[in-house]
Write a structure and sequence with these properties.
Blueprint lengths: L2 H29 L4 H24 L3 H12 L1 H31 L3 H28 L1
Helix pairs in contact: 1-2, 4-5
């Protein structure tokens, strides 16, 4: 995929974050619910979308900045660092959710432990599915 197409997809992604965030904020205000998580999540998505749009605007400002960014993103060392960081985040989230599931279960909070347990199961299953796909592809 060429770099300009990738940047255009990031524009759409930033706009999507903003739209989804605004919808969540509207749902919070229209329903007059006490669930502040929805409102906070909406504002976070809007902020993330705006930051993405600003970042993409800086990248597309000139051909020189696009070229620098393309080199930065295609550099093998930077790709390896990004992959390693993603791997660490995945491992940490699985371990944290597993430990939290165990603690909640042992404390008798079975219903609260269940979503975390499902999260771990789904993530591990997805990992193996994508691993098998990647193994056949590469």
């Amino acid at each position: 995929m060429d770099f300009k197409k990738r940047i255009r997809q990031r524009w759409y992604l930033g706009i999507s974050y903003c739209v989804i965030g605004l919808v969540l904020i509207l749902v919070f205000w229209l329903r007059e619910t006490e669930n502040y998580f929805i409102n906070s999540f909406g504002f976070s998505l809007v902020a993330m979308g705006i930051m993405r749009l600003i970042q993409n605007r800086k990248i597309t400002k000139s051909e020189e900045s696009m070229h620098k960014r393309k080199i930065l993103e295609s550099d093998e060392r930077n790709k390896m660092i990004a992959e390693r960081a993603k791997s660490w985040v995945f491992s940490f989230s699985i371990m944290a959710a597993s430990i939290l599931t165990l603690i909640l279960f042992l404390l008798g909070y079975h219903e609260q432990a269940q979503p975390f347990g499902w999260f771990v199961c789904v993530m591990v299953i997805l990992y193996w599915i994508f691993w098998l796909i990647a193994q056949k592809k590469y």
